[in-house]
């Protein structure tokens, strides 16, 4: 139908990709306007049900790169990627950094680690550093994240 090459970098948040896609949508719309309309053959495919809020839930048993990509994909202006603390509080992760680890202790996925460089959460492979989170309506970054997790070191997020 129509194809155009472009670069998407791993540091792009989801909304930056959408801005680039909007330019392509205009080109596609102009192309489709000049094309004949054909009814969809439902025996060859059907409709997608759409996203649900549960699609943003983080599964810490996944590799850190997948979790990082989920966080980037659903950050502002979308609902955000989320997890739960052991006491049931919802924590939305708006921004994080991917960290590949090699010689660290193997805690279970979802374990919170507090280090001098920041607050990290272990995934199945690797971990993410929390840069911007929200809990109970309060948005936190930098030392506020450290203070929030200070008494929660070692908890396992779910």
């Amino acid at each position: 139908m129509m194809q155009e090459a472009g670069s998407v970098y791993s540091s792009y948040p989801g909304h930056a990709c959408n801005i680039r896609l909007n330019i392509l949508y205009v080109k596609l719309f102009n192309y489709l306007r000049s094309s004949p309309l054909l009814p969809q053959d439902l025996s060859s495919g059907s409709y997608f049900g759409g996203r649900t809020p549960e699609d943003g839930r983080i599964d810490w048993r996944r590799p850190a790169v997948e979790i990082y990509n989920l966080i980037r994909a659903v950050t502002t202006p979308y609902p955000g990627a989320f997890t739960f603390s052991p006491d049931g509080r919802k924590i939305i992760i708006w921004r994080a950094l991917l960290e590949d680890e090699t010689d660290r202790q193997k805690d279970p996925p979802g374990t919170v680690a507090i280090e001098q460089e920041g607050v990290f959460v272990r995934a199945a492979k690797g971990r993410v550093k929390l840069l911007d989170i929200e809990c109970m309506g309060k948005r936190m970054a930098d030392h506020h994240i450290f203070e929030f997790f200070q008494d929660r070191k070692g908890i396992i997020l779910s």
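Helices lie at 14-33, 64-73, 143-149. Residues 82 and 92 are 4 Å apart (CA to CA).
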